[in-house]
Design brief:
It contains 5 helices and 4 strands; from the N terminus they run βαββαβααα. With 150 residues, it is of the alpha+beta class. It has 2 domains: 68 residues, Alpha-Beta Plaits, CATH 3.30.70; 59 residues, no CATH class. Helix 3 runs antiparallel to helix 4, helix 3 runs parallel beside helix 5 and helix 4 runs antiparallel to helix 5. The N and C termini lie far apart (49 Å).
Length: 150
């Protein structure tokens, strides 16, 4: 069955730059796929649709234009490719967590506890934008869990 997507088409004025930066950060936090300049996509579900609809309102309030769309690729492979792109981006984030967890295992005392807590929080943030979980997800969770508290 083809994946359905929610798209956000937007344009913001160059100045002031604050709304552009805020929008970019929110899109990054959501883990969107950049289809084109000013066009992003997320797999369609109630949460992603609502997030992009709210962002469209914020963009309009900042003096820009934005619309959300529901779409399904004309060729199923395009949707699979987009899903793979999102999974690959999350895999890279999980790989970084694994490296950091391995390094944190060598820390002493409070530094190790703080690193574990920070990595757990980062795993949670990544998980919120992990729509197509790669196999690195489980390895990252295991690596963080393996950090033994002193």
């Amino acid at each position: 069955m083809p994946i359905e997507w929610v798209l956000l088409s937007y344009r913001l004025p160059r100045e002031p730059s604050t709304p552009r930066i805020a929008t970019w950060r929110k899109l990054k936090r959501l883990g969107v796929a950049q289809l084109n300049d000013g066009l992003v996509a997320l797999p369609d579900d109630a949460r992603t649709r609502e997030a992009l609809e709210w962002l469209a309102v914020e963009i309009a309030e900042a003096g820009g234009t934005a619309t959300t769309w529901l779409a399904r690729p004309g060729i199923e492979q395009y949707g699979r490719d987009l899903a793979a792109e999102l999974a690959q981006a999350r895999a890279a984030e999980y790989a970084a967590i694994i490296e950091e967890a391995q390094a944190a295992a060598e820390f002493a005392g409070a530094a190790r506890r703080a690193a574990k807590k920070r990595l757990q929080a980062e795993l949670h943030r990544i998980g919120r934008r992990d729509y197509f979980p790669p196999r690195e997800r489980a390895a990252a969770h295991e690596a963080v869990a393996a950090i033994v508290e002193p």
